[in-house]
Design brief:
The structure holds two protein chains of two kinds. Chain A is mainly alpha-helical. Chain A is built from twelve helices and two strands; from the N terminus they run H-E-E-H-H-H-H-H-H-H-H-H-H-H. In chain B, the strands form four sheets. Chain B has a six-stranded mixed β-sheet with strand order 6-7-8-3-9-10, with helices on both faces. In chain B, strands 13-12-11-14-19 form a five-stranded antiparallel β-sheet. Classes of the chains: A mainly alpha, B alpha+beta.
Amino acid sequence: MTTTAVTSAGIASEAPRSDFGRVLAQRERRFAAALLAPAFLALLATTTFPLLFLVYTSAFRMDLAMPFTNGFVGYENYQVLLSDERFWTSLLVSLVYTGSTVALQVIIGLALALLVMDLKRGQGWFRVIAILPVVLSPAVVGMIWRTFMLAPEFGIVDFLAINAGLGSKNWLGDPTLAMVSVIAIHTWQWTPFAFMVLLASLASLPEDIYEAARLDRASAWQRFRRITLPLLRPAIVMVIIMRTMVALTAFAAIFTVTAGGPGTATEILNLYAYRKSFTELSIGYGSALAVALLVVTIIISGILFAIRRAK
Amino acid sequence: MSGQGQVSFRNIVKMHGEFAALKGVNFDIKPGEFFALLGPSGSGKSTTLRILAGLDAPTAGRVLIDDKDVTSTNARDRDIAMVFQSYALYPHMTVAENIAFPLEMAKLPKAEITPAVKDAARKVKIDHLLDRKPGQLSGGQQQRCALARAIVRKARLFLLDEPLSNLDAKLRLETRAELKKLQRSLGVTAVYVTHDQEEAMTLADRMAVFMSGEIQQVGTPAEVFARPNSIDIAGFIGNPPMNLVPARYVDGDVIIAGHRLKTTATTRGERDVVVGLRPGALRMAVGGLGARVDLIEDLGDTAVLDLDCAGTMIRMRVADGNIPGEGDTISITARPQDIHLFDPATRMRL
């Protein structure tokens, strides 16, 4: 009798409290969901739905020039894509463009950051000047380069090339030079981003471990290799990830400068998908190309994030 | 590779713009000595250590190590090991990698590095933590790791910049004793910066007391304690520090609050002085200076009394079992040899 009384009393005193807690938690969850809902719905409508619609479209033949051939084709677009030489070329151009611009941004950005860290004065000015290209629209940057910098005879770059004895070059007409040019333009615009992230990261490194390293007889190069670089690693990997995403999907700067040309020399996958969809009006196949770009981006970012997690 | 570790500072001046951090510092450290640089914050002791390490350059003067002028020698070429106040461990390396770093920089073969790292870690009792990163260590363990990194190299000079200040009180006492034993067993010259006079007193063979950019006294802890050179040092050394009371000197006696005390001085004449009285040197005696007990701080085995002698505050240390009550009036005196006299104008010892 006594034992039962004690246990039931224990339960009785316990039960309302946990009930109360559960109700409270439930209410909070509901409130949290209500707060989350608008942003969540907006995201669904602007990203998830278009993505799904893209995948859906890629299963159709949707040719605005020849509407009578339209209809469901399953994965035929992807079969065509795999044997489409222009697809593979544009994928290669995308990878070269992304790899070289990201590598250049990190190397030049890091070198600039190390240089500016050692400046006793003028760091602030340097930062202000450095941010200017970043705040420009890529389309504007493309126009500036096409007209002011690369125009034959009158562009600054060509003017310098002539004066350096290299002679006037057709910067945007020669396939190799056009590729070099679009890589240079992207690097010019976005290196300041890498520079600023790495500078902030450098500035946060403690001074005293460098003093300890000096007393431990590390040379400047050893201090950089053994201390600076490992400590900057998270920032460098983050810059690589962010810049890779953007470079893979670059569009405006190339579009305004070369529009993918000459021929297909600077036609990255993104541009090919655009040309296919909106110039040749083959929406279904264009969608398949865009999905392919999405898959490539996901694979590359997956690899990068795996590197980031690894030691 | 390891030399003697003899250090000389010759007229070292360090200016920060208009501000003189060091105003002509001179001292000599003998090989194998445990030498403390003691002073309140901002007195120039850390600057002195950084100049010795080669991390800062002096504005004027010369630094000699083992009779060689190293004033313009690079920090990495001075053969000096240092423990930083912040420990300055390399956060991305394990304890073992941290300790091995100076050896790797010296291009020692790997076969020699591993046993040397283990040996250094064992000496400071962190050989079970070799695989941890600094972020996974407690403050005391980090401090030991920094110590191990400094001793592993067997440098000729061992610099310590307030190494105990970030430890809790109990650990500080333990580490203090171990540090002294470690330095003795290694036989290395150690230069130790601290603002804690008790640390300097207990650890150092000799010490230099810094006051606003100058060394005011160099000597053994006992010497500095027994005969402080200036009012500033007298007020800095000892816990609680020396009582400093304005008084009148008349023919070998001093008059404090109307009461006459004998001193060891024999000069005739009359002048204003500052009298220094160690709290522990004061005695209760009939017919002495009358004082009212304002406050008692009981420390267990001793107690510190705050006394009011006709408006002058005097602190006195008494043994347990001899403690008067608060509000009591007692009579105190001091032996002539325990009375220190200072010039109020120059603030120096008379």
